[in-house]
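Appendix C reproduces, verbatim, an entry submitted by the partner laboratory led by Prof. M.T., so that reviewers can inspect both the input and the predicted structure.
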Amino acid sequence: MARGDAALPACALLGAWMCLISGAGCGPKAVPAGAGSGEVQVDPAVEQADAERAFAEIVAGHNARTEHLDTFESRASLEMRYADSAGDHFDQCEADIFMASGGRGAMRASKLGENLLWVGGDGTRGWVFRLDHEPTSLIVYDHVDDRVWGQAFDNRGGGDFTMLTPRSVRVLAGMAPIQGDYTVRRIAGAAAGAPVHERFELHWAPFPKVEGVMRFDAAGLPTQLVVNNGAGNEIIRATLSEYATAQAANLAQGAWPKVARRIEVHASEPKAEVRLYLDEPVAMVKRMKPKFFMLDELTTQLRPDSVAHYVPADAPTATAKPPVAKPTSGAGKSK
């Protein structure tokens, strides 16, 4: 998309990729339904207990895998379908994803060497550079914490940002540990004799007032993540496939963590579809630079025309700050 075309909405650019370890393939235990009937009936209590034991192993394996993904980077190709007031759109572009410890991260979208969007954070603040149309802009989210993510997923502001924050990308991609309490629930309509990972799914709260529902394959790798808002309505569905190992520093090749290379994301509000394909993901530093997580340096490099600040609250408000000096040429084109 060239500058001056329809703006690329930040919320259409999502990320997503996920987990590890096995939930096994044992079928549910059963008890006779009645003397001489010849029928078999599953004991729900036994089936639930078996599933909880299996998912405890899945979660332990998932969390062990994510420990090796604290540092991560990858090139990627993006396909996006979305609709706005100008109609339906289809765009293709390149992306670079960088994630580091301490909640730091960056996602850059570009086309033909020109930056379109830069989203990132340093663990305490987050930011979005909109460089795909004139005038270019920077939105800074001060004091980023779980309130911001929960409010945005609950459709109460900041949604464009939270779908792309380092923490959100980690969650949607299955690269964040499952923390706190979780429940294991039976999938409605699942066959009684199916493997445990096809009969049950994991429910937990990745953000306040938000429910995440994750399903796994036989190897314990996430295949689907659904995010529901506080009202119980689905707002994002991510499908993960084509797992590959990501080279990691100080680990034997057989211990390299796996990541989904193909991620398909469907957002319901606003409606959008994103297909992301990771190219040579690595769990180590190769191209990552400290300045990717430094707002002042990024602002100097990308030179947005205006800056606005947001603070986390039940009803976030923006306070416009004086616009930075408009560059004489090349705004948003720095690499």
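Residues 1-39, 154-161, 314-335 have pLDDT under 50 and may be disordered. Additional entries are available on request from the coordinating office.
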